[in-house]
Amino acid sequence: MTRNRHSGFLADAAFAPPHATTNRRGVALLAALWLVVIIASAGLQFSLVARERRALGVTASDRTRDRAALTGALAHVQARLDGQRRPQAAERQAGLAQRMGVVSDSWSNLDALFPDAIAVGETRVAVRGVDLGTVVNVNTASEQTLAVLFEAVLRDAEVATQLAQRILDWRDADTLARANGAEGVDYRRAQRTVLPTNGNVRTIGELAQVLGMTPDLLERLNPYLTTAGTASRVNINAAPEPVLRTIPGMTPPLLAAILALRSGGRRVESVPALLTAVRGAARGDAASGLYMSQVRDLTEAVTLETGEIEFNLMVLDPGSIQPANLSATVVRHTDGSAVVRRMQW
After folding, report:
1. How far apart are the C-alpha atoms of 178 and 156, rounded to whole Å?
2. How far is the C-alpha of 171 from the C-alpha of 175, rounded, in Å?
3. Are 150 and 243 in contact (CB under 8 A)?
4. Is the Cα dihedral 242, 246, 251, 255 positive or negative?
5. Which pLDDT band holds residue 16 (cuts at 50, 70, 90)?
6. Residues 168-213 pLDDT 10s
C-alpha cells in the first residue's frame, strides 16, 4: 500500500499540467529581471551621488582658489595705493604743490593706477574703483540731496521730488507716506509683489523696485549713486557736476569756478582760496563774518582729495556663469596709508 501511495504521488507529479511549470518559470524569470533592475538602479544612484560629490569638490576647490585670488588682488591694490603716498608726501614737503597753485592727489586717477587686470598666479582679476566722494549714498543722503541730484540728471523737478521721497519711504522704518512718496499700501494697490524693505537699500539695482522708477531712469541715475561707504563729503576736484550741485551752499558762480579750474587741468587748492576768487573779495572783506561762515560750511561739506574708494574685484573666468567677486572699501589714513575698512563676498 505504501508503495502504491508513493507511486501515486510520483504519477501525479509526472503528469502535472504543462502550464503550471511554465508559470513557475515565468515567475522566476520576472523575479530575476526585477533583481537586475534594482541592482542597476542602485548602481546608477551610487554613480550619480559620486558624480555630484566630485562636482561639489571641484566647485569648492574653484571657490577656494577664486577667493584666494581676490584676496591677493586686494592686497596688491592696497600696496599700490600705499606706494603712492611717498612721492606725494615728498612733493608736499618741498612745497612744490603750493608754489604751483596745484594740490596733487595720487589716488585721483584710479584708471591709471589699475589699467589692466591683476594677475594672481594663473588667475586674472579685474579691478574697478569708485571714489565715494564723487557719488551719493542713497542710504545716508537727505531728501533734498537726492532731489537736487535727480533734478540735475533728469531735468524734471517733479519726477526728481517724487523719486527722492519714495526712496526715503522705501528705506525708513515707518509706514507713513510722504506727500509724493509711497509706502506698502501704495505698492499693494499698484499690485506690486515687492514691498518697501523699511531698511537700507542693499544694491542700486534694488531701486528698480521703487514705485515710479523705470529702467531708463535708473540707468541714467546709476553712475551717480552708491550704497557703500561712509563718505559724507563731496570731492570737489573729482565729482561730476550733478553731484557738485548737491553741496550745501553751492551757487552758480562757485560751480562755474570749480569746473573752470578742472577744465584747465588745475585743482582747487583750498576752500578759502576758491571762495576768495569767486567773491573777488578785498582783504578786509575776506575777514568778514559772512565770508568766514561760508568757508566753515563749505569746508565741512567738501574734500579736496580722494579719501574713500569702493573697489569691486572680479575673477576673469570665461567658463564661469557667475564669476567670483569681492567688494571692499579702502580709506586713506591720516598718514596717507591705505586701510581696508570693509570686505563683502
Report:
1. 19
2. 10
3. no
4. negative
5. low
6. 999 999 999 999 999 999 999 999 999 999 999 999 999 999 999 9
